[in-house]
Amino acid sequence: MAAPLKVEFHFDFGSPNAYLAELVLPEIERRTGVKFDYVPVLLGGVYKATGNMSPAESLHGIKNKPEYNALETERFLRRHNITKFRSNPFFPVNTLTLMRGVVAAQLDGMFEPYFRAAYHHMWVEPKKMDDPQVFREAFLSSGLDVDRIIARAQQDDVKKKLIENTNGAVARGSFGSPTFYVGREIFFGKDKLREVEEEIVAQLATERRRTA
């Protein structure tokens, strides 16, 4: 019997486009019946390994392109009826502690509340989440045992897992976030969600024909 189709969402909380894309994933899951695996990666590590840089850096000084990117974001928000999004005035934020925290939460069965709180404090009510005191107060306000998470995030298995995720993503072709995998097929960016869904549907149909 063939293994079920594996679909993945590689994310870093520092990417606003990953936040916006993730808000659409439940729609794709409902329509296709798949469930995305959420894979935390350290975007700074991906950039370093690939020689890439954030759009804020790559678009700096370019005439018209940053404005067009902002226009595309507005179109995305309207298309998907997204109302809870604000630019983070402290961007870019160093996400190392945030990402170690989500790996710890994933390993310890606390992923969902941590994930939602982290995105809330980055892109709904944005804060300087690389400030340790701000980080602690933000997660406390969301009802999480933040001291447990902070301590867990410093343990070697958590650090190792984040490094493995990041290096593994680069080895498979990743260069930024959000990145999606449908089986072995890679897609980058929130504007590729339609193609992601089409590939899921195509691969599911192929598998059904194979097993019929």
Brief digest:
The protein has 212 residues and is of the alpha+beta class. It has helices at residues 16-32, 43-50, 55-58, 65-79, 96-107, 111-124, 132-141, 146-153, 156-172, 193-211, and strands at 7-11, 36-40, 179-182, 185-188.
Question: How would you describe this structure to a colleague?
Answer:
The protein has ten helices and four strands, in the order E-H-E-H-H-H-H-H-H-H-H-E-E-H. With 212 residues, it is of the alpha+beta class. Strands 2-1-3-4 form a four-stranded mixed β-sheet, with helices on both faces. A hairpin with a 2-residue loop joins strand 3 and strand 4. Helix 1 runs parallel beside helix 10, helix 2 crosses helix 9 and helix 5 crosses helix 8. The protein is globular, with a radius of gyration of 18 Å.
How far apart, in Å, are the first and last alpha carbons?
12 Å
Question: Main sheet?
Answer: 4 strands, mixed
Uncertain runs: none
CATH architecture: 3-Layer(aba) Sandwich
Which helices and strands appear, and what pairs or packs with what?
Elements: E1 7-11, H1 16-32, E2 36-40, H2 43-50, H3 55-58, H4 65-79, H5 96-107, H6 111-124, H7 132-141, H8 146-153, H9 156-172, E3 179-182, E4 185-188, H10 193-211
Parallel strand pairs: 1-2
Antiparallel strand pairs: 1-3, 3-4
